[in-house]
Amino acid sequence: MSGNLTRYVDAWEQTIRSVAELAEGLSPADWDRATECPGWSVRDNVSHVIGLERELLGDPAPSHTLPRDLVHIRNEMGRYMEIAVDVRRHHTPAELVGELNDTIARRVKALREEVERRDPEEEVEVFGGLRRWTYEILLRNRAFDVWVHEQDIRRAVGRPGNLGAPAALAAKDVIVSALPVVVVKRAGAPAGSAVIFDVTGPVKFSAVVRVDTDGRGVLSPWLFGDPTARLTMDWETFARLGCGRVSPRTVHVTVQGDEELAGRVLDAMAVTP
Prior knowledge:
Blueprint: H1 3-24, H2 42-56, H3 76-86, H4 93-114, E1 123-126, E2 131-134, H5 135-157, H6 166-177, H7 179-186, E3 194-200, E4 205-211, E5 217-220, E6 229-234, H8 235-242, E7 254-257, H9 259-267
Parallel strand pairs: 3-6
Antiparallel strand pairs: 1-2, 3-4, 4-5, 6-7
Helix pairs in contact: 1-4, 1-5, 1-6, 2-3, 2-4, 2-5, 5-6
């Protein structure tokens, strides 16, 4: 069994149990608070977590027609995700907490048995066939996704925590892996340039994106000389930007070097659907 599979399952379990603990302590008003996830309340974030885990358990997809006025839906993936959320919008908090706990118990048991026999490189279809990932990437992305929604809930209800959780490292892996696309394809960094992301806080790291002579962006473990632009921020800011939760104009980022390029990079940092 791949060590990464176990690591990602452990990280996923820690963060989804944290979501359940949060949900059990919410007040009636908390459930309807808006979050930084566009168009979603605290209730909707919990419903999303339930819906995806039930899908991965093989439960039947809900038969549900979405309203036409959901303006936050931007693409087919968003429409697919919304079904499990919208179908639960009239469920009571007690019903959602009960369903979440039941789903966690079933999913933990299934995953602990599953990782013993699954090939990490086996390809699997998810989201009704809209994505095809390796099994290892699926587990990494589930840890990432649940942690992101846990943080959405925590910020909405004013209960910060778990920023340095094991699943936060999965989130770092996901966002950092997309930085070459952000820097080159979206921000248009020229050949020969380099951008450094210096991140402080509970998840501390530096990520270097170099643009080679052919204009391809690559993650590099080192950089000789000064970067074209250096962006310094704390971990929560990096995660919020990478998940499209906040505008770069409303958070603190220290920029050194080419400010115009840095601005384009920050505007392009959202890597989630």
